[in-house]
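Sequence, structure tokens reproduced for absentees:
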Amino acid sequence: MLARFRAAAVGAAVVAAVMGQMLPAQAATTVTARCDFYSPKAVTVAKGARVTWKSGCDSHTVTSYSSNWSKNTTLSQGQTTSRVFNAKGTFKFRCRFHSSVSGGVCSGMCGSVKVT
């Protein structure tokens, strides 16, 4: 029984390692502001990558709420804005029109960029 458990654990580790290799951090990506959510909500990019936000519906903002970057842009439908992330970390953003932040926690239209 213990041998099967160990074999399953090793197998899971191998699958996780292979999956990690199949999903590398991206060099660039686009986040679309839908009517009431970002798609995708969270992205992982490589250091030096460009992230572009595009409004696919109505007016939205891309507003930092994690205090470690600066972006506060209002986009009308079809407009884009972008930023190159040159530092590692997690950078949180939200739409000022469709979210709220209380105690550092965002509810509503919120997202994040993880830079590796």
